[in-house]
């Protein structure tokens, strides 16, 4: 019987109270409420296009701003991913995806390497996209890469901030989905561990 790649993680601080359930072998079902509508939309898009089931409930100090909530969801989602992916036996490990969305094009490459690194090449025209602060998008991926121990390389072009952000999250979804695929029964590393 195959091991289920599922995790439940939670984190409570003076700034946020977050609970996340993740199923890497799901169908893209989601129930997400972060209190930040555009962030919900991005995470829902990620779940749908990665086929990773996500249940995220976040209460944060968004009366101040959205920084702590986005950061802590990124941290906890990375922790949940790391727990669910377990010893990484049999995974494809590395993948990439290119996703267009109207004027925008996003390219994301991922390596589930056990090493944390984020490289980005994109910017936004406006301080906000909907009710989400634009620069928190980079911070979300920093937090996920750090706690999930993955290498992410993300670039995007385009003139419309909404399209650019959504293309990034969809490319992230497709690349992570592919990298998580079980293809064999060994650890994909010459070191024998990831």
From TrEMBL:
Stored SUPFAM superfamilies: Ribosomal protein S5 domain 2-like
Example GO molecular function: imidazoleglycerol-phosphate dehydratase activity
Keyword Lyase: yes
Signal peptide: none
Keyword Lyase applies: yes
Keywords: Amino-acid biosynthesis, Histidine biosynthesis, Lyase
NCBIfam families: PRK00951.2-1, PRK00951.2-4
PANTHER family cross-referenced by the UniProt entry: IMIDAZOLEGLYCEROL-PHOSPHATE DEHYDRATASE, IMIDAZOLEGLYCEROL-PHOSPHATE DEHYDRATASE HIS7
Protein name: Imidazoleglycerol-phosphate dehydratase
Organism: bioreactor metagenome
């Amino acid at each position: 019987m195959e091991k289920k790649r599922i995790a439940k993680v939670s984190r409570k601080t003076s700034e946020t109270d977050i609970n996340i359930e993740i199923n890497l072998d799901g169908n893209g079902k989601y129930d997400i409420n972060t209190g930040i509508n555009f962030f919900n939309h991005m995470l829902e898009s990620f779940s749908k296009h990665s086929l990773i089931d996500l249940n995220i409930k976040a209460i944060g100090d968004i009366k101040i701003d959205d920084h702590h909530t986005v950061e802590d969801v990124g941290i906890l989602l990375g922790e949940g991913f790391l727990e669910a992916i377990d010893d990484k036996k049999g995974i494809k490990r590395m993948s990439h995806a290119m996703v267009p969305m109207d004027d925008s094009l996003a390219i994301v490459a991922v390596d589930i390497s056990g090493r944390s690194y984020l490289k980005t090449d994109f910017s936004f025209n406006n301080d906000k996209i909907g009710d989400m602060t634009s620069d928190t998008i980079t911070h979300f991926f920093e937090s996920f890469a750090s706690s999930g121990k993955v290498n992410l390389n993300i670039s995007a072009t385009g003139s419309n901030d909404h399209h650019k952000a959504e293309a990034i999250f969809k490319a992230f979804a497709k690349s992570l989905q592919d990298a998580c695929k079980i293809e064999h029964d060994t650890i994909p590393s010459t070191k024998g561990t990831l």
